[in-house]
Amino acid sequence: MIYYLFNYLDRVCDFPGAGMFNYISFRGSAAFLLSLIIALVFGKKIIRFLRRKQIGETVRHLGLAGQEEKAGTPTMGGVIIILATVVPVLLFARLDNIYLVLLLITTLWMGAIGFLDDYIKVFRKNKDGLKGRFKIVGQVGLGLLVGCVLYFSPQVTIREASPERTAVVQAVGGAESAPGEGQERFLQAEEHSTKTTIPFVKNNEFDYAYLISWLGDNYRDWVWLLFIPVVIFIITAVSNGANLTDGIDGLAAGTSAVQASVLGLFAWLSGNIIFADYLNIMYIPDVGELMVFICAFVGALIGFLWYNAYPAQVFMGDTGSLTIGGIIAVLAICVRKELLLPLISGIFLVEALSVMIQVSYFKYTKRKYGQGRRIFLMAPLHHHYQKKGLHESKIVTRFWIISVFLAVLSIVTLKIR
């Protein structure tokens, strides 16, 4: 909203300084600072409200060190993350951007599912919360909406490096032009496409349509039957992975901030025609506006981490964890980096796999030997290390370090291919 006001002042009134709001970098910085302030200032008030209303965490007795002390800690703190993300975005972003609208819908949609789950746990005194099938229905519904918009909307386009560009680069032994040189000459016109990026592969663009090319000449007319289910799977998997990761103080918020920052860098590079040309990567018109959303999101996570770091004053609950997972999944799909998610969101993946492996092995051994056996002392994986005697703050810090390592490795894929 403020963007449109200052844009008007710049065009019509030539108001001094109003032109700064035309720059994504300025609006992103402003969104980050405002979200951080909202999380820090209003977060404290929200925590007091939650404590006053006795909206506290009901802790299951799992035999973990320090578990009993967490009983009664305010939960549903994901509201802080949602509030601190949405308000700056509404103020500083261009609300006519299709990618931004999708991210706002994702935030509120997944937040509503998580809020309902937490409500049932807290007020209905049902530790299981919202039944799993209803969560899946909500996640599938969001995936269906996002997939349809990204496939059918005429505003979702890409521009990729032309064959002439590739020939020139190869002719000079892989040398690249400086930023800004020849981007109009070497980038083709915008096209509606289901292409995405495959990491560590030469000519690293992959079109989902290739998988159904056996259908005949009109195979591209049916690629939505493949693309939309892929989007649904990614959103469901990542949101559940984030939900499983939220088990100890500061783990989900800290690792998610790192992941979102990497996706923000990809959005900025892919949305800038100069850098897209320089790096010889896919240029995605209008996706750079996501930087404003991502800056607000990261600021909200860091601000929330102020209160969620050990010993936590508030838990995000499913209101926060499902929202975080949904946002990261949709961000990756929008910037065409969804196939890089196993690397970017490696922490979420490992946490989810640890649960799947544990449950599958337990059921298998119970059928075979009559008694279930376990691979890990407890799943998800962070509880395994707690059982081994590591303090949760040490576990969280090491998971953060691994997240940074995976983030850097993800960025390296821009050149190693």
From TrEMBL:
NCBIfam families: mraY. Pathway: Cell wall biogenesis; peptidoglycan biosynthesis. One of its GO terms (cellular component) is plasma membrane. Keywords: Cell cycle, Cell division, Cell membrane, Cell shape, Cell wall biogenesis/degradation, Magnesium, Membrane, Metal-binding, Peptidoglycan synthesis, Transferase, Transmembrane, Transmembrane helix. The keyword Transmembrane helix applies. One of its GO terms (molecular function) is phospho-N-acetylmuramoyl-pentapeptide-transferase activity. Its cofactor is Mg(2+). HAMAP family: MraY. This is Phospho-N-acetylmuramoyl-pentapeptide-transferase. It catalyses: UDP-N-acetyl-alpha-D-muramoyl-L-alanyl-gamma-D-glutamyl-meso-2,6-diaminopimeloyl-D-alanyl-D-alanine + di-trans,octa-cis-undecaprenyl phosphate = di-trans,octa-cis-undecaprenyl diphospho-N-acetyl-alpha-D-muramoyl-L-alanyl-D-glutamyl-meso-2,6-diaminopimeloyl-D-alanyl-D-alanine + UMP. Pfam families: Glycos_transf_4 (PF00953), MraY_sig1 (PF10555). GO terms for biological process: cell division; cell wall organization; peptidoglycan biosynthetic process; regulation of cell shape. The gene is mraY. It is a multi-pass membrane protein. The keyword Nucleus does not apply. It comes from Candidatus Merdimorpha stercoravium. Catalyzes the initial step of the lipid cycle reactions in the biosynthesis of the cell wall peptidoglycan: transfers peptidoglycan precursor phospho-MurNAc-pentapeptide from UDP-MurNAc-pentapeptide onto the lipid carrier undecaprenyl phosphate, yielding undecaprenyl-pyrophosphoryl-MurNAc-pentapeptide, known as lipid I. InterPro entries: Glycosyl_transferase_4, PNAcMuramoyl-5peptid_Trfase, PNAcMuramoyl-5peptid_Trfase_CS. It is found in: Cell membrane; Membrane. The chain crosses the membrane at residues 20-43, 71-92, 98-116, 136-153, 222-239, 251-270, 290-307, 314-333, 339-364, 395-416.
